[in-house]
Amino acid sequence: MVAVLERIFSIFLSVEFLMGTLGNGFIALVNCIDWVKRRKISSVDQILTALAISRIIMTWLVFLDGWISVLYPALYFTGKMLRLYFITWTVINHCNVWLTTILNMFYFLKIAKFSNTIFLYLKFRLKNTVLVTLLVSLFFLFLNIVVMKINYDMCIDDVQRNVSHTSRLYNYAQTCRFLLFTNPMFSFTPFVMSLATFLLLIFSLWRHLKNVQHNAKEYRDISTVAHIRALQTVIISVFLYTIYFLSYLVMVWSSDSQEKYLIYLSVWTLGNGALSAHPYVLIWGNRRLRWVFLLVLLRPRYSLKT
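User: That's the sequence. What structure does it adopt?
Assistant: Structure tokens below.
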């Protein structure tokens, strides 16, 4: 029964790998081609491109990690391999989480309307705000790597102390729980920031709609449409972000016993599914990317008809 479920989860993970690679690859390719043609790229496209590239690397990392652990277990549990995996995962996951937060913050500062002095200062210095946020994220990345390095030696000693392959598999999950916990722990700050931008954007839209109705203007004016479009993108992004964030908390909880192995696989599949679905949300929320995506989908149908 467990073997059958493992195969099912493997199929799901393979589909998620394919969908994530195609979606993120599309975003990166379209933005890079547009960059070459126009010789310039907007701030939001820079963030989207960087996020897409980090997602592609993360998707491949998860895919290769799964196959190497199955096909080459002896290589997988060497000290150098584990060190490389944890460092690479920490850096890529950190980039993924913070770039998602910066993108949500960009939409919020671009669309929302507040008369608060701090908000106006951040809005009119948007590029500097993004740059400072990136620098802050690098500081958190440094702390994350330091904490991981301090606990790495203890973890690797416990893993390599066991001779049998089965014991290594169990001890890998059992003794590295703290290392698994560091990523959600350091992801909590950007997660709260994304949640705050989401709530503030809702409040901004509510105030804007009240002003529109009070002034007896057309209900769906340009600003209202922009608010709703950005809000829809941020809502789905925060929802997927929440699934991704909570999945790793559950993975930490379920890694303490072999009885919770299926829960571990289920949550891992769910978290990667949220990660793979997010690029399509970003494509739908971006007018230029959405237009190119629909053009690519409709062109084969048009060719068959003609």
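The chain has eleven helices and no strands.
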